[in-house]
Amino acid sequence: MRRNNFVAREELAVSTIGYLTTTIFDYGAIKSLPTELAALGVRRPLLVTDAGVQQAGIAAQVLAHLDPTTVAIFARTPPNPTEEAVLEGVVAYREGGCDGVIALGGGSPIDLAKGVALAATHEGPLEQYAAVLGGVGKITEKVAPVIAIPTTAGTGSEVGRGALINLTNGSKLALISPYLIPKRAICDPELTLGLPPLLTAATGIDALTHCIETFLSPLVNPPAEAIALDGAARAWRFIQRAVTNGADREARWEMMMAALEGGLTFQKGLGAVHSLSHAAGALRSPTLHHGMLNGVFLPHILRFSAQSVGNKYEKLSDIFGISRETNLAAAVSDLVQSLKLPTTLGQMGFEARHIPQTVVRALADHSNATAPRKASAEEFEGLLRAAL
């Protein structure tokens, strides 16, 4: 009897993928954690996670594979990682006599873990390592080794070279360096089976946005574009299934792969969706979910950039299985709405008074450099008002 590819995958050994870093991917991948820690020479790791992951019992699942007496735990990651939390994590790292970091959770714990791995091994304030301030070259190979274990299928931070941190001065800056790419990514879709529908949708839209934006970036990187297209196709096909039935193992596998592929394409750069999402996400109040912001901004930026991307919208339409005559921005907007995600900033608590500071931050964001159409201050303001 002919068996589908997903069944065949489950019967094979866990996949190991070498691209930028080493990724162990499949159901059961978490069992490899002790082996990977040993391979990196890590004997006393700091587990960086958040309260939600702890309460869901996922941290306990991970610790079950380790001697808990050798692991220090920092579980106070805020929804958007902050410089204050990084410094608290460094204290936990040093008090635990740690020599490496396990990042467990969504993008926030993984980014925070990267910040801790940097700050624990490099002197001075984090701001000096921000990419837009010339900090890339200041980050060295001394960064503590990180093993990233995602519990959502969204950010791709487990294979990304950057970490977004809200600094104490109110800015949200990216720390970027190849030395910040985790030494290992352990991607086990089992850890996402309990993710609620809303978070499944929000993180899934994040993954889709990464693939679309990196594909549209004008930088020349055909291998990254091919990965982005493959990831976008997976996300488009399986996100609704993952949201509708969180126990759908095939959909969870495919969405985690889409998220991974989105992260693998970061080398090509993002664009104006992320410039705006990073900027709006820097607000301390209200706290805005990054994936939901992407879902609001993506249709607006697709309309804004339509004349600056050649025939790439046609290629996206082809892999999505929609007519080339279909308005791509409208199709994405329909998808976001069908997933019951916010479709306006107002629904998320963003107000008109937040626009001026958001425009300033969006203009300064590192993602602007690779946008197919760069927005002016006036255009950013118009986009934000349209999204309200």
Automatic annotation (TrEMBL):
Keywords: NAD, Oxidoreductase. Its cofactor is Fe cation. CDD domains: Fe-ADH-like. Residues 22-189 form the Alcohol dehydrogenase iron-type/glycerol dehydrogenase GldA domain. It comes from the Bacteria. SUPFAM superfamilies: Dehydroquinate synthase-like (SSF56796). Residues 200-388 form the Fe-containing alcohol dehydrogenase-like C-terminal domain. It catalyses: a primary alcohol + NAD(+) = an aldehyde + NADH + H(+). GO terms for molecular function: alcohol dehydrogenase (NAD+) activity; metal ion binding. Belongs to the iron-containing alcohol dehydrogenase family. This is Iron-containing alcohol dehydrogenase. It comes from Bradyrhizobium cosmicum.
